[in-house]
Specification:
Layout (H helix, E strand, L loop, with lengths): L1 E3 L5 E4 L9 H7 L2 H7 L7 E2 L6 E2 L3 E2 L10 E2 L11 H18 L2
Parallel strand pairs: 5-6
Antiparallel strand pairs: 1-2, 3-4
Protein name: DDE Tnp4 domain-containing protein
GO molecular function, one term: metal ion binding
Keywords: Metal-binding
Length: 103
């Protein structure tokens, strides 16, 4: 389990669990979850380079994760034609998550 920043730098890594659990349960049992809750997610929002809109720290997760205010996860059932925006969001979220998964 790992957390990277917007510059693809690893900022947190926890390697203490075997692969038989889903990412959500590993996350909840890791040392990363309490650190994020206590430290990182309560920092003031930052402006992205070249922008003026403050953006909070967010975690990207898969569909196994429960809803949390700081977590982005895919929309369920986004394959329907009338959910084009959900499909686009899911695709972009998946591409962003690959940074950590491919490391």
């Amino acid at each position: 389990m790992a957390v990277v920043d917007f510059e693809y730098k690893f900022i947190l890594v926890d390697i203490g669990c075997n692969d038989r659990h889903n990412d959500s349960s590993i996350f909840l049992r890791s040392e990363i979850a309490p650190y994020l809750e206590e430290q990182l997610l309560h920092k003031p929002t930052q402006k992205l380079p070249g922008g003026n809109i403050p953006v909070p720290y967010l975690i990207l997760g898969d569909s196994a994760f429960g809803l949390q205010p700081h977590l982005l996860k895919p929309f369920p059932h986004a394959t329907e034609i009338n959910n084009m925006l959900h499909r686009v969001f899911n695709n972009r979220l998946s591409r962003a998550r690959r940074t950590v998964e491919n490391a």
